[in-house]
Amino acid sequence: MYFLPVGQGDATVIQCPDGSLNLYDWGSISARRGPFWATKELRCYLKCSFGDIQNILVTHYNSDHYNLLPQTFPVKNHELTGLKNIYIACTEELMKQKADTFAEWVKTTKAKVEVFRGGKKCGPFEDEKCDIKLEMCSTTKKGLNVQTFVMAANLGGCAGGSKLNVDSIVTKFIFGGLKILLSGDFEGEPQVSTMVEFYNKGDKKDLEETEVYHAAHHGATSKANTKTWLGGIKPKAVVSSGDPWHTYGHPRCHMFDLLLGKDNDMEKCLCEHGAATNPCPRDSSKQDTYSCGQPEIKKEPVKKENPNTHGIYTTTPLKDHMNLIHVASTKEGSWTITIPYTSVPKTKGD
Fold this sequence. Notes:
With about 350 residues, this protein is of the alpha/beta class. The protein is built from seven helices and 16 strands.
């Protein structure tokens, strides 16, 4: 799984054991300005692999989760020859209302549009499960089993407005022994508490047994990434997109402080490189500094770079590193996080 440095937005590539690709959100509202990747860098990164993309999932209808799709894959090029399914939150009608240009692009792909439970809430309820199984990585090779679970969708009631984030599709991927949680911009009560109570009930620890957590809402902390949510997940490592120079100041330093146990109400859960207790995987890269936004009295976010020895990874480019984050399962049943690229892909001639 590859988390790309697009700034205030999300763009994730999921590579299956058979080589096929899937996109999980693909948008940004800061990708047009450096140092973040924009359309040319994304096309260069995926070059010669457009036909391998089989599925696209868009968690909800905020533009920083879908607006790069029409730009990266122009209709006139007819490049997504292997695309089968586009999974969306809520309904096609709401998609047309809230994301009309994206809806038009979806229509031209001729892919099958999949909605969960007819646009009704689903997931953390005994009689209201999400009824569609993702076809991502459905073809496996011997010894490389991949499982996908849609844990929630449409919990905001698909009413639009301020509930768009709450409607986000929340998915758990299990690659061998590696469990990764992707959650779009999921946030809000009582939905967060409902998720934690349902999935961590009794001996069932479906949320808590998470190795890598892709931070909801780009690491925001007003309604997302609360103590209830983070305490229910207890991830060993966290990956966050965001643009701490943007007025939103995402990801917020407070989220990392909670995961590091700097708040009295929450114990540290993140792994630590080289530690005797709860160490990060031996072959994982250590991101020496991570960037986050810190609000001042005037509520203007200030970018901070913090020394880091724990399982914290942000896709904010630094002076000498682009911070593309690669998360993978190993044949030994462990997992690893690496940062494989030190510069922007070449875009000459693209």
